[in-house]
Write a structure and sequence with these properties.
mainly alpha, globular, single chain, 209 residues
């Protein structure tokens, strides 16, 4: 129990540092992230072990079906995100005057921590055996996490139409993330796609597409 508490606190600290470094301007969104993180920590992290139940194992990389799902998901998700970014539906806080290599190297570290933290907070509980093995309960919680995740993300978007477009994209992707993680019994699939989306935003910002 002591080890689990330490892991929970470390996760909160890491997520907090990642967001402070990333310097989001919408403080309401950041506060909501912390509130949700605290609730999840109290209610969920005491019920499962971090490594085992979250499927943090390299064994998944040897599963051919993992790539059959992952590659199309990355392609479709990033294609949609490309058009969302192209039409300026989602603003970005990254300075495109900085050298692209420097920005990418810094962002690789920050984005890895941030997306990992978000996947634990929002999709981690879905892998608790009592939840993932109960089909009705799983889909109820999966829909709930997707709605909350979407609600927070649209706080960073201006304009009603932009909120609706980006919100629909995030909602559907979040629901799919939950299902995909359950299928492979790991948060690695959603973490990988989430991470790739973040990298694309940086590249598009620098290329001014």
């Amino acid at each position: 129990m002591k080890r689990k508490r330490i892991i929970s606190v470390l996760i909160l600290v890491i997520i907090g540092l990642a967001y402070l470094i990333k310097d989001y301007y919408n403080h309401i969104g950041v506060i909501l992230y912390f509130l949700i993180a605290i609730v999840v920590t109290i209610t969920s992290f005491s019920k499962f072990t971090l490594i085992d139940d979250l499927g943090l194992s390299f064994r998944i990389l040897t599963n051919k079906r993992f790539y059959q799902y992952l590659i199309p998901t990355i392609l479709v998700s990033n294609l949609i995100l490309f058009y969302i970014k192209k039409f300026n539906i989602v603003p970005t806080n990254y300075d495109n005057q900085e050298p692209i290599l420097k920005t990418i190297l810094i962002f690789l570290f920050i984005n890895s921590i941030r997306t990992f933290g978000e996947e634990i907070i929002f999709r981690g509980a879905l892998l608790i055996p009592e939840i993932k093995n109960n089909k009705k309960l799983f889909w109820q919680i999966n829909l709930g996490q997707a709605i909350i995740f979407t609600g927070i993300h649209i706080l960073f978007v201006d304009g009603l139409m932009n909120k609706l477009i980006f919100g629909l994209y995030v909602l559907l992707l979040s629901i799919y993330f939950g299902w995909l993680n359950r299928k492979f019994d790991s948060i690695i699939p959603s973490w990988t796609v989430h991470w790739m989306n973040g990298i694309q935003v940086i590249l598009l910002t620098h290329l001014m597409i």
